[in-house]
Amino acid sequence: MNNVACPFIKSNESTTDRILRIIVGIISLTVGYSTLSGVAQTIAYVIGAVALITGAIGFCGLYALLGISTRKTK
Predict the structure, then answer these.
(1) Could you tell me the residue ranges of all domains in the chain?
(2) Side-chain half-sphere of 57: how many Cα atoms within 13 Å?
């Protein structure tokens, strides 16, 4: 999968990783909006937003810092 959203960043997430992040992001944002309040809601929003954004662009900053890549090299 190409980085259409951010062509200047080298992808370090596999397709499966990206799909899982997007799913976790959507679930976290939904739970935060519908059932939580206060600090727990804020934490759910942050986790959901980070998971959704990293899944959408295919790049994880923490992976880059740790030298991890789940993407298969060609």
Answers:
(1) 15-66
(2) 14
